[in-house]
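hey all, quick one before standup. I had two proteins in the batch that finished overnight and I want to keep them in one place so we stop losing track of which output belongs to which input. First protein below, input sequence then structure tokens straight from the run.
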Amino acid sequence: MRWACILLLALPALNLSAEEARLIFSKSFPHSVPAFVEIAVVPSGAALYRDDPKDDNPPLHFQIGAADAAQMFALAEKLKFFTLPLESPAKVAFMGMKTFRYESGATRQQVKFNYTDDPDAALLTDWFERISETEQTFITLQSAAKYDKLGVNKALLQLEAVWDKKRFMAPRQVLPILDRIAANETYLNMARSRAAGVAESMRAAK
């Protein structure tokens, strides 16, 4: 798999052992935005995200809380590390093909599903969806800050909404951008004020 190659190449940068356990989630949903995501998490909370399957687009590196990662691994353990089927027999619309994968040393286990009614699988899916929302929000803000200063406030509103719903999982990743916006007079005052407010809220939560 191309993702496996990218993940192995990224291991030194993340200080990961080749034997370290990791959870990998992917979702393919043509015609949605994004149409593809892939996320890897290790017990320390170090993580990778990408939404483009091309090998020449490196994944984003970031950190979620170790306690959050522990909850994700606990759910994977309840799911027997993906050795059991998860697809629901119910007839439902296509909601994107999802894959849970567990890797630890020589162990490689995975399961695919469109929709599951297993509560632990649904919870684990939501953890990964929260990471996906976090990274998509980060990418939008990063792009606006660099290429569209008038669009920064809109990107900040999106980030603020995700944060207020307690679905933003990597505040350390976005704080440097928020601080730069807050301190840069070339951005709109409302954007600078909003960036400072969100950064303050994130630091208080920590």
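OK second protein, same deal, sequence then tokens:
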Amino acid sequence: MSTQSLKARVQGDLHDAMRAKEKVRAGTLRMVLTSITNEEVSGTEQRELGDDEVLKVIAKEAKKRKEAAAAYRDAGREELADREEAELGILEEYLPAQLGDDELRAIVADAVAETGATGMQQMGQVMKVAQGKVAGRADGGRVAAVVKETLLAR
């Protein structure tokens, strides 16, 4: 990976998309940059987000698209669901590869061992450790489901 920041990469890709007149891509990237900027100016003082924080913003936007697409599908609005999924595909290009089920189970097993958890009452501790190791490579709901399954099996 080059030394170019993730935010700079998104900005460069936006310019390319605008030149190529790729409306959906340009709109999606513009929206992500707006979310990044909003995050930078939120709080008490303006700051530049690091790549990890930019990834969190992109992951949050991707989650919104996934949920919206599912809601539109349930409502029978296929054209709107398709648009959300197209935007999701663009956002996923910037996210790390998602973990497979086996990899996720292994991370959760490590987190359980690390925390010494024996039951559901320690789910929060296990989640905290597991989320740190997952680092955006799996949706929080998926992580929680595997943690729950692992703890209930104890």
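Flagging for whoever picks this up: The two ends are 41 Å apart (CA to CA). The chain has two domains: 6-92, 101-152.
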